[in-house]
Amino acid sequence: MDLYRRALELIPGGTQLVSRRPTRYACGVSPVYAARAKGARFHDVDGNEYIDWVSGIGAIILGYCDDVVDDAVRDQIGRGVNFSISHELEIELAEELVKTIPCAEMVRYAKCGGEACAIAVRIARGATGRDKVLFCGYHGWHDWYLAANLDAEANLNAHLFPGIEPIGVPRALAGTAIPFPYGDLPALGESLEAHRGEIAAVIMEPLRSELPPEGYLAGVEKLAREHGAVFILDEVSAGLRFGMQGAQGFVGVTPDMAVFAKSISNGYPMGVVMGRREVMQPAERMFISSTYWSDAIGLRAALTTIREVRRRQVPAYLAEFGARLITRINEAAASAGLGVKCKGLPIHPHLDFPTTDPAVRAKLSTLYVQEMAKRGCHGYPSFYLNAAQGQPELDQTAAAARETFVILAQGLEQGTLDQLLECEPTQEAFRRLVR
Ligand SMILES: Cc1ncc(COP(=O)(O)O)c(C=O)c1O
Question: What is the pLDDT of residues 292-304, one digit of tens each?
C-alpha cells in the first residue's frame, strides 16, 4: 500500500489496468505489487506467496515463467527482437494460426487485445465502407468502443461497468458504437434493421463462464451475414482455454474475423487479428502500421505457446481440473453450511452467493477475497485457470475456502459482515474507483 500511495502521486489512476487497482480486491489486505512468479504462484513485495487464481488477468495459460516459452524467448533475445526489416517468424506464426483457428485465412498482429479489436473494427469499416458497429461485451479502451457512452452513459454498464464517462472521445463519434444484449436474437435483429445498410461489424465475446443459449451464436452469424456486416468474435479473454480452435471451435461457429491476445503468448505482449481472406485482404490498402507489431519476442512467445498448449493438451486438462475445482469448492461450502455455489463452465467457474441483495453480495464477495488472500489465495470470487495449477493448489484452495466459508456463514447468521470486513467492499463502478 506504501507503493500504491507513491504510485498515485506519479501515475494517474495508480495502475495501467483497471483490474489491477487494489480497490478491485480487498483493498489493504490483498496483495498489490508482485515481485516474482513461477508456475501457479507469485510472491508480493512483502515476501508473501499466493496461488494466482486470476492467471495474470487471463494472460497466463501455461503457468508463469514457463520454461519452454521462456527459453524460446531468451534464445530469440540473443538473436535480436526488432529489426529494420521483417522477420520470418511473422509468416511462421501466420501459418500456425491458419492451421489452428477455423476462421483464419489471413492474419495481422498487434501488441494487446484492445489494440487488436481496434484494428479489426478498422478493417471491417474499411472493407464494408460503413461506420456503425454493434457490440456486446468488453473490447478495450479505444475511441471506437467508448463512443458507445456518448449517446447514453449507461450503454457500457452491462458490457464493462457503470460510471464510465467518455471523456476525451470525440463527440462526432456519437451513434457509431451501439450495444446489444447477450443472448437476445430479436434485439440484435431490431438493431440491424433500425440501422439497415449502416452496420460495418457485429463484434462480441462468444461466451465467458456460461454456455450461450442453443443456436444463439449461429443466429448472430446469420443475422450479421444477412445485413452485410462483418461478424467478429473477440476471443481475447477465452484464448485457447476452450479448445485448440479457440472458442469458435468450441461453439461450432466460424466468424468472419476473430481477435486473440492475452493467453496466446503466455504473458508476453501480443495480439492477433485473423479472418477470411475476403475481409482481411482490403486491409492492404488501409493505413494500419506500427513498429512493434513485428517484434520477435511476441511472435516467438505466441508460436511457442500455441505449440505447447497443443502438445500438453491444455484445454482438456483445464476442463478436467476446473470440474475438480468446482467439486472441491462446493464440498467446502457444504461442510461450512454456507449456501454459496461454485458453478459455470469448468474453465471459468465462479461463486454464486446466497443473497439477492447487491449490498450484501458485495460484502460477502469482498470478505471472501479478503479471507482467501489471508490464506494465500489471490483472486476474485471466480477462477481463471492455467495449466500450472494442480493438486497442491486444489488442496490449499479447498482448505482456505472451507475456513473462509465458515467466517462468511457466521457473518451472515450473526449480522457481523461489517465488523469482519477489514476494507471497503470491492467497488464495481468506474467513477468511484478514481480517488
Ligand atoms: C474480451 C476482451 N477484449 C479485449 C480486451 C482488452 O485487452 P487488453 O487489455 O490486452 O488491451 C480484454 C481484456 O480483458 C478482453 O477481455
Answer: 999 999 999 999 9
